[in-house]
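Sequence in, structure out. Go.
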Amino acid sequence: MILTRRHFITSSAAAVAFATGSAGTRAAGLPARIGYNGDFWGASVAGVASDQGFFTKHGVDANTKVFTNGPIQVQALGANSLEFGYLGPGALWLPATGKAKIIAVNDVGFSDRVIAQAGIKSIADLKGKKVAIAAGTSGDMLLRLALKKAGMAMTDLNIVQMDPSTIVAAFSSKQVDAAGIWYPFVGIIGKNVPNLVELAKNDDFYPATTFPSVFIARNDLVESNPDLVKRVTGAIKEAQDFRAANQEKSIEITAKLLGIPADQLKVEAGYGRFMTSAELVKLTKDGTVDGWFKTMNDLFKTFGKFDTSLDPKDYYLGDQYIAA
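Output:
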């Protein structure tokens, strides 16, 4: 089964186990747990870091396992059953409201789409139509952006909340008129409904609105075990650099981890930016990353997710990412 990168359904998936210790006890360190999402951008860093030994190099003994979305991982953080996790852009309101700390940016994504059945030609045509979303995901957010641009609101639609795999089935069987969804799911739907219409995509709002995905840590862990956070962040940075320099190999590693065809992941991988840790350090230092988060916060306020939020400097550990 293919799972999702971005983000409010019940998951039977368990957490990931990490462990870390001092340089002299790397083989049996203190246990920690981390979640990842089951698509290329959500799983590739975990897959690469495990396959290439970056976790071990940084004193982390990793045993990874998948989740269907980010918000579930934040719930697990709050229940003390996870230490680390992964969020797509649609779930960034969670760290912005103090539910977790961002320890690293993963990528900037361009894989989201608002798609519709043949005959629907514009966002305006969605008025009164049945539209599927996975609530709190980047697909949800893109739909809201597109509606705002068209002078519409979610209340103008008949919104149906589903998990991504159910959206694939519902759209393919024409049970819904449209959906806010992302690759690889768009590609899967396209094989079943080749005449689907793409009404909106991330590129329509870039660079004014940039969709970053991130890695997060449990709030108390940042103070109680900063060494663990530093080690995991160091492994993430090395995996990011390997992924950027070895894209085909990274797709192969991730496909093996997820148990899905590499060709399917290759399409999704084409809708993100393979950023190196050096690039992300630079973008962190010059304030670009904080700017991305501030823009997202403004959107979340507009969408009614919250009235006030933290400043990105209070939940993005940029200095620690730079130093790791």
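Check: Residues 63 and 91 are 24 Å apart (CA to CA). Confidence is low (pLDDT under 50) at residues 1-27.
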